[in-house]
Amino acid sequence: ATLADIEKRAPNNKVLETATRWLSKQQGIIVVTGLFGSGKTTTVYALLAEAAKQGRRVFTLEDSAAHPLERVNHVELAARNADAFTRQLAQIYASEADVIGIVVDPFPGLDQILYTEAAHAAGRNRIIILQTTSSSPAAAQ
Questions:
Q1: In Å, how far are 18, 26, 48, 68, 124 from 117, measured between CA atoms?
Q2: DSSP string covering 79-119
Q3: Could you tell me which of 22, 36, 72, 90 has the fewest CB atoms within 10 Å of its CB?
Q4: In the prediction, which pLDDT does 141 show?
Q5: What is the pLDDT of residue 139?
Q6: What is the 8-class DSSP label of residue 5?
Q7: pLDDT at 119
Q8: Under-50 pLDDT residues of the chain
Q9: Long-range contacts of 3-9 (CB under 8 A, 24+ apart)
Q10: Rounded distance between C-alpha atoms, residue 61 and residue 68, angstroms
Q11: Coil, strand, or helix at residue 43?
């Protein structure tokens, strides 16, 4: 799905405008959160595709690169632990990525390093797009 497709289904119909504004920044963190099945992955992939379309150097770090996007460099997480995550993220940093999408299911130790690493990367002229799962509708807001 594209951002335009998502905008058609969005209640406020400002998805494209908001996402374009976010992606025009040189650095920052975009957190996409929600319940299982709420469209988080679709939204993250639409943001990544838009960034790639803008000519940004885009990478993902994900559990499974099952849905490849054109002009996006997909990296599958080698092992579900903090060391593998940190090591692979460092390799992506070294590749001079402009935008990094992190689409991994939770594992022990991930939360602690995820936001630290994202803040570190965002402070170095990168946009980080994180996907997280909320445990309730209230937590997703």
A1: 24, 17, 19, 24, 11
A2: SSSHHHHHHHHHHHHHTT-SEEEEE----TTHHHHHHHHHH
A3: 36
A4: 44
A5: 46
A6: H
A7: 77
A8: 136-141
A9: 3/46, 3/47, 3/50, 5/46, 6/39, 6/42, 6/43, 6/46
A10: 12
A11: helix
- d(Cα 60, Cα 137) in Å, to the nearest integer? 26
Cut 0.90: pTM above it: no
Given the DSSP bridges, would you call strands 99-103 and 58-62 parallel, antiparallel or unpaired? parallel
Instruction: Give which of 62, 17, 34 is closest to 140, Cα–Cα.
Output: 34
Number of neighbouring beta carbons within 10 Å of residue 116: 11
DSSP H or E segment with residue 72: strand 72-76
Token pair listed for 83: 């060391």
Look up residue 96 and give its two tokens.
């001079």
Q: At a CB cut-off of 8 Å and minimum separation 6, what does 38 contact?
A: 140
Q: Look up residue 125 and give its DSSP letter.
A: T
